[in-house]
Amino acid sequence: MAKARKILHLDLDAFFCAVEEQLRPELRGKAIAVGGQPDQRGVVASASYPARAFGVRSAMPMAQALRLCPHLIVVGGTRGAYSDRSRKVMAILHDTAPDVEPLSIDEAFLDVTILPESIEETARKLQRRINRELDLPCSLGGATNKLIAKTANTIGKASKPKDAPPNAITIVAPGDEAQFLAPLPIRGLWGVGPKNAETLASLGLRTIGQVAQWSEAALVARLGKLGGDIWRRAQGIDTRPVQAGGAAKSISKEVTFAVDIADDARLLLTLRRLADGVGRAARKAGLAGTIIKIKLRYGNFSTHSRQTTLEYATDNDTVIMKCAERLFLQSRIDDTPVRLIGIGLSGFAEPSRQLDLWGKAERPAESSEFQSALDQLRDKYGETTIRRASDLHYQPNDDNRR
Ligand SMILES: [Mg+2]
Fold first, then answer.
1. CATH annotation of 179-234
2. CB within 5 A of ion ligand 1: which residues?
3. How far apart are the CA of 138 and the centre of ligand 1, in A?
4. Range 129-150 average pLDDT
5. Which of 137, 144, 193, 367 could pair with 362 as two cysteines, CB 3.0-4.6 Å apart?
6. The pTM is what?
7. 25 C-alpha to center of ligand 1: Å?
8. How far apart are CA 317 and CA 92, in angstroms?
9. In terms of CATH, what superfamily is 8-166?
10. CA 157 vs CA 153, 163, 228: distances in Å
11. What is the DSSP-derived secondary structure letter of residue 1?
């Protein structure tokens, strides 16, 4: 048998709030929320632990947060400071281990297998260093794989008192993976969305342990290939490597036109359709990305790409489209015919339902319900069943030279 790996998952505690407290020490220990203003339909990007004690959560409309916690201090956010601190944290991680996979601005996996000390010891040292050198609270989960390390961190953080940063360390020993997962609700398992959770519940399977005890063949019969993946994960098996450089995985869609197209309106319609496809593929895979990239290939085969990094991971068509459109307008060479256009999503992290953190936001719950209703209709009746009214004059079959 191969030697057990040692994988750490690191997550900064209420990161944006912790940075704001550094910038304005008078905020320390207070109920604060970073995010958009309530009168602009803003949402909470990050809530301090004293605010969480009142029920304030990320992705919650700010107006609702203020109802729960009337003395909440709303802070607009200082983007540059967040990326600066994030870079410093990542530098410490790289100084600790050769393989670091950033997941988002405040989260990363590390493979520390080659270090001689125990995984607990590495976790303690790392936490102490980030606490002391950067004055940031952080929590770590450790295990033999990414699935268990990340789940351990989530569970460890949640089990600490709610009124202060958890600064937790939670280690699952080799061999204890399945036992650790067993009592947890199946919805907490990576890749199990609300729809599959419902299917599993209808079979009487509510905990990860119950799924692990089922036969793999029976799950595959009910859920297809994903059934097999879910079964393996329920046993605590996850062979994914820690991928240095992070954005190794990506979801992308592109179209090569039958005839090169110079008309921006027509290109933007195609871009919108691609954004919908990328968002849908991400939601299906249970992924949300922080990096949105567009690719333009002109008639002369010169290829241009441009990307942007979001503060939060998204799987939302509208957010992907807005970013893609902005990138398109920034990189477009006027009137030059385009041969190929594409959108990619990468830098995967946990989905967060908020849209535009810094300004207006759609009501997150409403919009994700709408989104999953759309997904179901498209699954059932095909890609072109539901289209935006503005796209109706556009014939998707014009695309694709194949
Ligand atoms: Mg965090």
1. 1.10.150.20
2. 11-12, 106
3. 8
4. 97
5. 367
6. 0.66
7. 20
8. 35
9. Reverse transcriptase/Diguanylate cyclase domain (3.30.70.270)
10. 6, 12, 29
11. -
